[in-house]
Specification:
The chain is mostly beta strands and about 200 residues long.
Length: about 200
């Protein structure tokens, strides 16, 4: 199974609406947080032959070290029943990622970033487990549109389980307060999409 990925779809309308206000120069992209979220994986049945909508949860951590460097880690777990023709099986996929992020401020409200990481994945198919360790890389930008909305866009590459996956995505950060934020995200490759929604706590 490929690394779970997420797509930009209907979220573009929400992002566009939130972006209409003028940016506040006193705000800056957020790098110190812990997030928890629900996620839903959607396969393109025409391309993959897989009929399934597994779901699960994820946790993400980020801590800024200095003006140019931060550390990142995440854990994702997605499980469900999969149907391929007349064959039905259950599967659980766990992904652990850890790495560093390098950022460069292009303005008071915009950063570009690069995040190399180590990726560990474990697949459990009907009780049979396989695992592998690979690498990932993510490049993108973060922009503060206003005091209530930040947008992150990115491209991701993951190489693990003898599979090389390229995807693109976006994540909106909605600031309910200085410390409590909402998260809406979407990412995709040619075969699958993954959507997520949750809460992020800034520290």
């Amino acid at each position: 199974m490929k690394y779970p990925t997420i797509q930009l779809t209907a979220l573009s309308l929400l992002f566009g609406a939130c972006a209409s206000a003028t940016a506040d120069a006193s705000e800056s992209p957020v790098y110190d947080y812990v997030s928890g979220y629900y996620q839903l994986l959607d396969f393109d049945e025409t391309e993959t032959g897989i009929n399934a909508e597994p779901d699960g949860f994820g946790l993400e951590f980020s801590k800024q070290i200095n003006d140019f460097l931060y550390v990142i880690a995440s854990y994702d777990d997605i499980s469900g029943d999969y149907e391929i023709g007349n064959f039905v099986f259950s599967a659980d996929t766990s992904v652990l990622m850890a790495g560093v992020g390098f950022k460069h401020s292009t303005s008071d409200v915009s950063d570009v970033f690069f995040e190399p990481s180590v990726v560990y994945i474990e697949d459990d198919f009907n009780g049979d487990s396989v695992d592998d360790t690979g690498f990932g890389a993510k490049i993108g930008f973060t922009h503060v549109f206003n005091t209530a909305f930040h947008l992150k866009g990115f491209l991701r590459h993951v190489s693990v389980m003898d599979a090389h996956t390229n995807s693109y995505g976006a994540e909106g950060r909605i600031l309910f307060s200085d410390s409590i934020h909402g998260i809406l995200g979407a990412e995709a490759n040619s075969d699958e999409k993954l959507y997520k929604a949750g809460l992020s706590f800034r520290f």
